[in-house]
Hints:
Number of strands: 11
Bound molecules: NADPH dihydro-nicotinamide-adenine-dinucleotide phosphate
CATH class of the largest domain: Alpha Beta
Largest sheet: 6 strands, parallel
Strand content: 15-25%
Order of helices and strands: EHEHEHEHHHEHEHEEEEHEH
Radius of gyration: 19 Å
Helix content: 25-40%
Oligomer: single chain
CATH architecture of the largest domain: 3-Layer(aba) Sandwich
Structural class: alpha/beta
CATH topology of the largest domain: Rossmann fold
Shape: globular
Amino acid sequence: MELIDGNHIAAALVAELKAEVATFPGRKPCLALVRVGEDPASVSYVRKKEKTAAEIGVTSRIILPPITITQAELFALIDSLNADDDVDGILVQSPLPKHIEEVATFRRVAPEKDVDGFNTLNLGKVAQEDPTGFVACTPAGIMELLARSGVDLKGQHVVVLGRSLIVGKPIALLALQKKAGANATVTVCHSGTVNLPALTRQADVLIAAIGRAEFVTADMVKPGAVVIDVGINRVPDDTKKTGYRLTGDVHFPTVSPLCAKITPVPGGVGPMTVAMLMKNTVKAFRQRATR
Ligand code: NDP
């Protein structure tokens, strides 16, 4: 079994982006990070994004509206960032408070600055295989992890667990694309799937993104498969200072000995998500500069 080291691969990508940004004369790419309220996970995610941006030489602009912000005020804030020529990328950190409509908010971000890839146009460009679009960071990070680990999806049976707009659907579309590194046969499973283990056992590459701790067990995996664990779950654990441990959607101790390759949690897909956000921001900068 080979461990796919997301920390190592993300660090290589960050180093490449840093070298590229250093060649840009004058203004550097600028990423606006909008965090509504004080959700602890969001605070830590935005801090990590800010830190990685600084490492690469990307300017970050942190905007912290109060949790009481109205939908109209949030739209007005996004509109002002859309119109600001010095801003190349905009990210609105989820989760948003209950009174804010998440999909409508993501749609408000101008497509050419939508470095999170959640805008309707960018999701459509994934389906149309248009390389000018922005692919959502987690699925883009999974494709990059696979490519840099020497996994070619061509002709492989990829089984995706989960059909969310931010992971399941876009990763299924990416694996399906008729291009180098992809060109897979794809099955997408969800909570309505009947006899799920019979499908997962057919997977040459199994991508688990359901948010259920250690759901995928050894009897659900074909020996020799590649397993990508997207899940990030907090399981109560009194032996930890935090009172919890992080685990994926895959039961790592029993599944990993069976696999050809597997991503750990933490240290697999997670670090790639931030690195791909930076890659998208640099791409937005380049595309806007050559308009
Ligand atoms: P969502 O909750 O939006 O979607 C979960 C999907 O899993 C749904 O399609 C749901 O089916 C399906 N599902 C849930 N339970 C089952 C089940 N028992 N059997 C089959 N399918 C099931 O989650 P996300 O896609 O946003 O996230 C998934 C996981 O990935 C989470 O743990 C999240 O924290 C993590 N994540 C990690 C990231 C990273 O950077 N590593 C980034 C984003 C997410 P249905 O549609 O029928 O409800």
